[in-house]
From TrEMBL:
The keyword Zinc does not apply. One of its GO terms (cellular component) is plasma membrane. Residues 16-464 form the Major facilitator superfamily (MFS) profile domain. This is DHA2 family efflux MFS transporter permease subunit. One of its GO terms (molecular function) is transmembrane transporter activity. The chain crosses the membrane at residues 54-74, 83-104, 110-129, 141-163, 169-189, 201-220, 226-248, 269-290, 302-323, 335-354, 360-377, 398-423, 435-459. The keyword Transmembrane applies. It is found in: Cell membrane. It comes from Crenobacter intestini. Keywords: Cell membrane, Membrane, Transmembrane, Transmembrane helix, Transport. It is a multi-pass membrane protein.
């Protein structure tokens, strides 16, 4: 019978999956909790709402760049020590963000927060991977851990809206403090100390991967903010792709590369990596676009907009117990194709809104969107890791985590880029032009979502766990 509880096996603390899940929730919640709060934060810091995009991207991009180091750090110093240090850094960064007085300070403090998150998420997941030996229990545990990763980014705008309306934007960060303290206490008792003192880090490989991630993300963000021309943007993107190509060449020759190329021999894992990147292009920006759309076009309060967006979280939670049974019944390919079709349809439905659109319409569309996104990314991530052999568990965990954060960063940037292109250089707070720009953006993202789903055809028919 489907359950939202993690599997229990002898010798493994039942709190371990909860620790990994809560750490993932904290990290992913902070990736989007600012979305609804951006207009209030922008007014407080003397910036425009679109300028605040850099606060979101700085955090997610720090995760994408530093996650590849987390596996080596966890192996070298042990999972418990690394996890505890990560919680301290994340909580400290949250406090510093609440004390920020300018956009530059906020970005710097978000980087500190991101460093903690980059260590926290993969370390918790790695401990789960190494603690659950058989494939079935590992997949159930990963499915449980993945739930907050879906709920966090979707619930973030709702929580942020309520906090801004009834308190102040500073509490968007301060809510992490009690959770961090509780997590630290529980980790002292229940996080296993798994280490490998002989572990080495591929410095050259890390620099190439980090360089590729930074170049591509920076180019897209600056182009979206109209601070970089098309030629310079294309040059930076080409340089980023070249860095990844150089890494492939390096990995073929290195004795212990950062990500062994043999890991891509697992088709399900490879599709999971590529699927995360292409799927987020269509859906990754919706939790950022919708709060802005509802507040700037409909003049909703942050709390009103946040409550409507809670429909996504509710649907994602309700769909979660069905993920593993659906994969076993129909296979990963069928579940991914069906869920991707629904994601695109829900995004397209947002283009058929107007000044008189009711709350019920938004809630209905977002219920479908939350259901489909939950099925899509749970299937992608759980299936990708569950099929890896033990010798590739650590590298696969790091690579998937990196791809997830890079995909989220690119998804946010791509959505704002499309919106800015349709809206023009000026940011209209309301009126027909705003509706037209958002509608065109939603149509574009729906088409991108459907086009990206073609990658799932690479999976063989009835590709499912044993």
């Amino acid at each position: 019978m489907p359950t939202l509880l993690p599997p229990r096996i002898p010798g493994v603390s039942p709190w371990l999956p909860w620790l990994a899940a809560v750490s993932l929730f904290m990290e992913t919640l902070d990736a989007t909790i600012l979305n609804t709060a951006l207009p209030s934060m922008a007014a407080s810091l003397g910036e425009s709402p679109l300028s605040m995009q850099s606060v979101l991207v700085a955090y997610v991009l720090t995760l994408a760049v530093l996650v590849p180091l987390s596996g080596w750090v966890a192996d070298r110093f042990g999972t418990r020590r690394t996890f505890l240090a990560a919680i301290v850094l994340f909580t400290l960064g949250s406090i510093l963000c609440a004390m920020s007085q300018s956009l530059a300070q906020m970005i710097a403090c978000r980087i500190v927060q991101g460093i903690g998150g980059a260590l926290m998420l993969p370390t918790g997941r790695l401990a789960v991977l190494k603690s659950y030996p058989d494939r079935d229990s590992r997949m159930e545990a990963l499915n449980f851990v993945a739930l907050p990763g879906l709920i966090g980014p979707i619930l973030g705008p709702s929580v942020g809206g309520l906090i801004v309306t009834y308190a102040s934007w500073h509490w968007v960060f301060l809510v992490n403090v009690p959770v961090g303290v509780l997590g630290f206490v529980l980790a002292l008792r229940h996080m296993p100390q798994i280490s490998d003192p002989t572990a080495r880090i591929d410095v050259k490989g890390f620099l190439l991967v980090a360089g590729g991630v930074l170049l591509i993300s920076y180019a897209l963000e600056m182009f979206g903010e109209h601070k970089l021309g098309a030629g310079a943007t294309a040059a930076l993107v080409v340089a980023g792709v070249a860095a990844f190509a150089l890494y492939v060449r390096h990995a073929r020759r290195a004795a212990s590369p950062l990500f062994p190329l043999a890991i891509f021999g697992n088709r399900t894992f490879s599709v999971g990596i590529l699927g995360n990147l292409v799927a987020r292009l269509g859906s990754g920006g919706i939790p950022l676009l919708l709060p802005l759309f509802l507040q700037l076009a409909y003049l909703y309060s942050p709390a009103h907009a946040g409550l409507i967006l809670m429909a996504i979280a509710a649907a994602a939670l309700a769909a979660k117990p069905a993920v593993v049974p659906l994969i076993r019944r129909f296979g990963s390919r069928s579940v991914l194709l069906a869920s991707s079709t629904l994601v695109g349809a829900a995004i397209l439905a947002l283009a058929f809104t107007g000044p008189g659109t009711s709350n019920a319409y938004f809630v209905g569309v977002l219920l479908v969107f939350g259901l489909a996104v939950s099925l899509q990314f749970s299937t992608l991530n759980s299936s990708a890791l569950a099929g890896l052999p033990p010798e590739h568990a650590s590298a696969g965990n790091m690579l998937l985590s990196t791809a997830m954060q890079l995909a989220l960063s690119i998804g946010l940037t791509f959505a704002m880029l499309v919106l800015s292109l349709f809206m023009g250089r000026s940011f209209h707070p309301d009126g027909a032009e705003t509706f037209a720009a958002y509608h065109a953006t939603f149509v574009t993202l729906a088409c991108v979502s459907w086009a990206g789903s073609l990658v799932f055809l690479l999976l063989g028919k009835r590709k499912r766990p044993a």
